[in-house]
Amino acid sequence: MNIVYLNNQFIPSNEAKISPMDRGFLFGEGIYEVIPSYEGKFIGLQVHLNRLYNGLESLGISSPLSNEKWIELCQELIARNEGENLAVYLHVTRGDSPTRNHAYPTNTTPTVFAFTFDIPAQPVPEKQNATVYNVSSQQDLRWKRCQIKSTSLLGNVMHFQHSINEGNKETILFNDQNQLTEASASNVFIVKNNTIMTPPLDNQILPGVTRHIVLALLKEHSKFTIEERAISYDEVLNADEVWLTSSTKEIAPVIKIDDNIIASGKVGDVWLEAQTLFSQYKYQY
Ligand code: PLP
Fold it and tell me: Given 9, 16, 22, 219, which residue has the most CB atoms within 10 angstroms?
């Protein structure tokens, strides 16, 4: 039985109960994080916590725990659950209010819920054991505050399901100017002629922790030119390589978008270099 954390208590998951009047349930009014750990070591823990604080601040919710207590919670949860490689899921809502009213209530206590789930061990990066992605593409129909890691994920879920319906594993998204934003649960990078590009941080994308680490590593340890800039649909289709990044995928090569094979349809050399750097340095962040 998984042990979860709910409002100051570590309890079996089947004992965790929240009120249906919780604003997370009624309005999807909350912020979440997914933090990977391998053999007890977290990747990007502080960057994840900082993004959690930014999200809570944008909703006017004070962080219910101190930074030290969040770290303790994450460590305690992986210690109490079995599994070598676990992601910690953190979820904070505005809490339970007696009446349903769109206005923020003034005196609610945030609900804090956390659990772990198994993630696959990351193999030594080699082209032949990379998990490759065939993806769908769609116009990005989500809201205009994608920088907030909101628990209201209906827009993302619907885009993701589109890829499943098409026999794919992710949907990459383009805004109404036909510029790349991100994917339903990942950031996107492209490579062309030894330049590595990804869309800039703004309200159209989540500031991915993996994106942050990948950019920092490439800037510090590689000779590639790095550009954070608007990327058109045609540039994506004509790229030498396309990657998805996320905490559970790390850097994942995309080999097909809809009916279009990317370059040779094979995993690229730049991916290998980037994922090797990531595997070597990921615990430093
Ligand atoms: N973009 C979206 C919409 C996501 O849901 C995620 C992760 O879940 C990401 C990007 C990647 O973020 P991270 O690297 O912090 O996992």
Answer: 22
CA 256 to ligand 1 center in whole angstroms: 20
Please choose, from the candidates 279, 246, 285, the residue with its C-alpha nearest in 3D space to the C-alpha of residue 87: 246
Pocket of ligand 1 (CB under 6 A): 34, 156, 182, 185-187, 206, 208-211, 245-247
Residues assigned a catalytic role: 149
Where exactly are the structural domains of the chain?
3-118, 127-284
Determine whether domain 3-118 maps to CATH 3.30.470.10.
yes
Nearest to 229 by CA among 217, 213, 241, 215: 215
Predicted confidence pLDDT, tens digits, the chain (285 residues): 799 999 999 999 999 999 999 999 999 999 999 999 999 999 999 999 999 999 999 999 999 999 999 999 999 999 999 889 999 999 999 999 999 999 999 989 999 999 999 999 888 999 999 999 999 999 999 999 999 999 999 999 999 999 999 999 999 999 999 999 999 999 999 999 999 999 999 999 999 999 999 999 999 999 999 999 999 999 999 999 999 999 999 999 999 999 999 998 999 999 999 999 999 999 988
Domain 127-284 has CATH 3.20.10.10: yes
Q: Which atom of ligand 1 is nearest to the CA of 212?
A: 14
Q: Name the residue of 34, 186, 213, 282 to mutate for ligand 1: max ligand atoms within 8 A of Cβ.
A: 186
185 C-alpha to ligand 1 centroid (Å): 5
Nearest protein Cα to ligand 1, atom 12:
208
